[in-house]
Queue: 4 jobs
Job 1
Amino acid sequence: MKTITVANQKGGVGKTTIALHIAAAAHAAGLKTLLVDLDQQGSASFLATGDQNAHRTKENTALDLWYEDREPVFTESLFGFQLLKSSDEIDAVDDDVQEGIVALKRLGNYGFDCVILDAPPAPGVRQVVPLMMSDLQVAPFTADALGTQGLVSMIMGWQNLKKRRPSMKLRALVNLHKVVSGTQKAIIEGLRPKLGELLLPEVLTDREVVKHALRNGKSIWEYAPKDPAADVWRAACERLIQEASEADSDYAGEEVA
């Protein structure tokens, strides 16, 4: 099983949109795919089911992973991949890192090829533990001052975790890029030599068609295959899946201080 966590300590960078698209790409590639929504806002649960109240329950949600006497209930999403919904009360599990490790390790019992974790922006158990256990961390960011500040925080955290897990990968991905902004273009060009392979070559632009696609339960390449953004989104997601597949899964379950 390969695990990809999509996270950033800054909200509003499109992490859920990217998580959904990675899951859609993995499913399209024939991988048995699960998306786990760990964000109590439940945006991924809503978009993947069409039910805006999907996360307003404690039953049949990701919370079940924290209870040994419960079996998680996976539902088929509108996109075709399996979904483990969030709960608006899932922040109750944010007190104990070791319990979080035990909970998420259970995901390895169900035969999935690829698991995508949509983590909340707050640096608690539901963000830290997924990052600890991932083969690949995906850090979406916006090419502006606040966006790059959030990216720096993610890179610093990854560097600390990497001391314990040398094979752990991180890839940064520019999202919501405004093509008319010379400032954003300059920021991206300035980051490339500094970040090297950490920064994906694809740049995801700010396009309404992506939002329309998700509201219709489809990826951008399914909803609008001729749109210029479709090929870029698909290439980025397929690249991330390939990066994860090449990672060595060396997580042994030990707590990281």
Job 2
Amino acid sequence: MPGDELTAEWVEMKSDYNQRISGEHHGKTIMLYVHGGAYFFGSVNEHRYQLQKHARKLKARVLAPNYRLAPQYPFPCGLQDCLAIYMYLLTIQDASSIILAGDSAGGGMILSILVILRDQGVSLPAGAILISPWVDLTHSFPSVAQDNPYDYIPSHGFLHKPSISWPPPSSDEVLAIEDAIGRTLMDKSSLPKYKETGPKPVVIVDGEPMEIKDQIHMYATNEMLHHPLISPVFQPSLGGLPPLMILTGGGEVLRDEQIYIAHKAANPTKYPTGPDFFEDSEQYRLKELTNRWAPTKVQLQVWSDLCHVAPTLSFTLPAKYMFRSMAQFGTWAITQAQQENIDNLDSHDESYTASFIGNAGDPLPRFRNNMIRERVDHHGKITSLEPESEIAACKLHFSKIGVVNAEMVVKWLTAKLENDKKFATLSKKIQKQRIKEYS
């Protein structure tokens, strides 16, 4: 609620806490963890066991913010909350001993926080771990429309029982309310002029253009889904960031955008943002923005056949190996940040390659062209990821990114039609309530 304090919860293993307060070890490492939940659900309570696992494996204190959630608090509320928590950490901790981490929406938010810190010249953390990050809210990559039997996310996306809070009235429903009360709901002439970030979502279905009038996501309006702090895939460059670890479920709906974002960060000039999202007067800056930052070091792990945010299923064997791998990367990132030799990693320890998931303190395989590209099976065995030329996400032209996937929309609209029939009576009651309140 307005006026409430922003809170966060510390998670630390009791044995590490006792050693820290007794001075047996410095206990400096801190992980700032942002939970997922599509920006409208999820909590620290829900993620507590995962936070405990991270704290134990990394021998760190984990700080998890209770950030504000949509629809009551849409973009940029949650982003501002998590950014504020990081700024607080900088008052008590050196950035080189901080690791950022997040899953799904939390992973996307972490990426946006890093870009803000980079652009504003604020000290960057030692590294970041992105678990199945959600980075394209326009759903433009091929995997979102494919059959994904290994994932638990519905193939048509999320649908909800209607309430006064969600969904907001569509443009047609707003007109119906205005007709009923005999006036407009808002005098837009008094509002300041602004440029919409992106076009209204329009898809071609059976050869005909169709505008999506219903709001798709609780976090942001349809016109804002191309905003680069909402969908980081539209950032001109993801270079200049601290080392990233990106874990992707090979069977999840969002895998393509995660694989793409990893390659975009490691090779910004090869994966540029399309000029359609910039005004003509700004397009001359697009190349300069793309080339400004050096490539980011990225460790990409694609876990064969796993679902979205697989570490949530912490009782499974693959999740055990994922926690080990994240601790290995986190320990490495902290060490490298404090030694300040990140730029030489491509030539570091060239003889070392990994065939199995390591533990905290083990060396990482060497980076090749700013990346460690790995495919991992259920038993933690590592093989090389397929070449970029064989990966659908890497072959998608930038002009297609941000264009809503028509197959996905058809699935969503078909499911929505059934949902609307199911709750038709309730929807009418809500519409009457809105008319009464506006009268």
Job 3
Amino acid sequence: MDANMNEDNQDPNSRMMKFDPTVLVVSHIRTTSRLTSTVTNSSESIINYPIQTIQCSIAKNGVEIKTVQASVGKKNQYYTKDISYTNEKMIGNGSFGVVYQANLLEENEVIAIKRVLQDRRFKNRELSIMISLDHCNIVKLKYFFYTHQNQQKGDIYLNLVLEFIPDTVSKVARYYVRQGTKIPMIMIKLYMYQLFRALAYIHSLGICHRDIKPQNLLVNPINGVLKLCDFGSAKHLVRGEMNVSYICSRYYRAPELIFGATDYTTKIDVWSAGCVFAELLLGYPIFSGESGVDQLVEIIKILGTPSKEQIKRMNRNYTEFKFPKITPHPWEKVFGAFTPTEIIDLISKLLEYTPFLRLDPLKLCTHCFFDELRIPNYRLPNDRELPPLFDFTEQELKIAPELNALLIPQHLHSQYSEYIIDSNSRDLIDSTTDLEHTLAVDEICSSPKSSNAESSRASSTSVGNNNGNNVKNPSQTISIGQSSSPSSSSTTTRFSLSSKQQQPTISSSSSSSISKAMKTDQTEIVSSSTSSAMQVASGNDNLGSISSNSDTVTTSTAKSVPSATVKIEQ
């Protein structure tokens, strides 16, 4: 670190492009400035990062090389270094900003650069949260730097240099839809397990992602590694602190958010994960409302009308209960009569009205649905080994020590013996809030039906063509049958579309009644014709993510200066 800091006093010309002697032209040179930091009484470090100028140079082969002084994206490592990258091209954009792909020369690897406009009125959380994270299932922040896009306007952009992961769960799902098949069950297990592991990690730090959806789940199609990305909406949730309810992409928005709750917990991420799980099983979003109130209608079609107690658990300030009575639609009819019991059990503990009854992510990792992943030497459909799934850190093993005996496969117990309290039974996952569920899981995981599912070594899928659209067709449902694979003696689960399955329906009058009932303290929360009163952030109710900047507004009116301030929580 000292060596890097001392380099700030060197002549900038002596530091440029040491690794590349082929540089012919340098457009301009910027002066460097030392990174400064101060510590406040609230134990927060306020880091003032200089606004950088990107240097452009041309190599002999005509390739443009961009060089910038970037800060290292690691907690408690506040130093800078010059990085150079080439072949920059835009690969995505949205309300959050723009994402570019580039080649990082020093490390000879492909990177992603997320460029986000910084609004001085709002508190930025993404950078401080990204710096604090270090987990194998979360996209890695390598470097970051600030730049001016238009110096006259004073616009400041945060540039996050991230590891590059080629695909998303959304792209993978669309591929199988276009092929007229379903994602292999083993891949669904692999993706969901890694998602729950990532959520367990950030939730243990008090961080709620608030925008879990297939587009934010990066996957490597070769080795099956999944990494959670886009922490633009993430926030440290503090008990008693108000949060915006208009957050999270609509299809994956938890019902307590629709009810306008501002004191929600990390369990909103668990609901979103349940929506992702259901979408992977069905091939389309399970709840695809066209507006905020319509989203609630879609949820009620399947879960039924929430009781007064459930509504109170979602938002204790909600006092109107004049909803039409809709009975729950059985999960067996949603996914098919022959759906394995462990799938029904898992989805029912994710898509649950009462937030605290949704299982914690780490407990979800111990569910018997994932037992297939714990089989020694199990392989992917492409005959590759499974990615590392049980390389738990000390921090992970301290989240809930009583779970470690179930979390760690039996054949690896000797490697983690000091962290295993008892390995005799599943009674370890009891708690005051979900003991009843624990006992149900015990029964399900020990049932003959579950044993057959666990012994399966491959999962192939086939469905009827839906014209490549990732949209729910009311006439299509999923039924499951069994067939034997010619290449294996084990049983293979196959999915097929059936038009005979009864779909949940709700009358237009009931939908209208739900819309009218959505009021809190005589103030309408949502309406099919007007924007939600809970939309404290500007923007339409669409599928795009809502920036967490809406949560806290700063009151500073100071003039723009060429530096950016970021709060990093210790």
Job 4
Amino acid sequence: MQSSPPSTALPALAPTSPPPAALALSIDYLDALLIPAQPIIDLRVPLALIHSQDNDSAMLDHEEEKGGGEDDEVGMDAFEVDFARDWLNRVVAIGTRRCARGEDEMIGAWEEVVDRAAKLLTDLSGPGAQGASTRTYILPHPRSQSKPESPARQSKPESPASVVSEWLAPPPAASSFYPTPPPTRPPSVVATRDRAPPLPPLELTLRDGTQLEASTGHRTWGAATLFARLLATRPGDFFPGSSGSSDKLYSDPLRILEVGSGTGLVGMTAAKVLEALGRRGEATLSDGGDEPDAVLDNLRYNVAANFPPQSAHTSTPSVKVGVRALDWRDFVRVAPPNGGSALSSSREEKTIIDQTTTRYHIIFGSDLAYERGQATLLHAAVAAHLELPTRTKYNADQSGVPTFYLMLPLRPTHQIEMEEVESLFPPAAQTSSRPAAAVSHLARQFPDGEHFSFRLVTLSSERFVAPTGFGSAGSRGRGARQAQQQSSVDVTTYELRRIVWEAVDSPAAA
């Protein structure tokens, strides 16, 4: 059934305004027409690889839904939205005058109409004026992305583009059907391939705060949305042993930490992916920003909504999800009193090692370098929590080593912040050209008595181009078309860094 646009559906307000009951029905109509009750962010959109002239990058494409949604039926455009906003302003003015006179016997009904019209005007002003909102993120099942390879194909590496083309290829044509053979002949036996039913997608429901709140941790940013999709579509790249290979250098449970979690999309996606893969793990989501109490309360709310507490009627979850406060400033080393370098002080290095009792195999972080000096705090926190190398696992070229995955938007206005990240997490095998103070050294003694120094380096990086906003790609529901059109233009280049411990050439002093 086709809906009418506001310019033809709303009642006239002059010369005589309708009664409050009729206005309330019209406001309900506008609310259902313009404001999505709970946006759905569909991250099952295809990931098409595009090779630019100067850089290999990936573009997170999203297609507008075919067949016409509610916006298509209504024909919403700027004129209709402005018409609705102007009509609501006039309703507020009329109702306010009626309430001020105090002569109308329906003053209570007029007050309700004014309140509802004012609230709808606020919602139409955009996310900056709205209160907390809830969004549902839909992610592909991680097992639906993996294809078993034949032995002949395992020895030949495939390019990412060829893999993606297989994902996007149409299904094989249905088998031909032949008439039933005569009863005098034995029935033909035609080999058919059993098709498993499609795996259900992963779903996460997150509550975001308003943009007017001071801390950035109240919002889900574009880097987290892109990162979550990569975790679901490429689990073998992030969780060792998940792709069926023998690169699992440590057994379950896998210990995972997300730093600067915010609303927790990345950390909870990691937990959901591990569950879907049948892995055991412990995922810890952490934050300690400008408003740690408020951010952590919202983070706990989101975790409880997606990972309900265990009851007598539920089985023990394979992945435990928890929340903790983590202030990065607690892990920054203080220079020795004699003015020497803290990096060369064994006492300072020993202190940083003992400041935490739990270290993690994998650490995730997204959009964590938006202020000067933040990379230094991040480096200290990661060094204090990333699993230390062992005698058999300190070769950074091996897969399955403890890894920090950092997703960053490459904003042109944050060049200094990006330079700080580059100096603190320099490329592997290029650290000799860096000043000693730019890279943290960490002494490690193996059981055989040997001492080695390790530091955090970027083993590899990958770039993507994806929407800038708060995960509007692939959004569905009322108002989705406008969000998709905006995100299709407003895009950002993102960089995913794989950061590991690297052994320094010269052994540390005993």
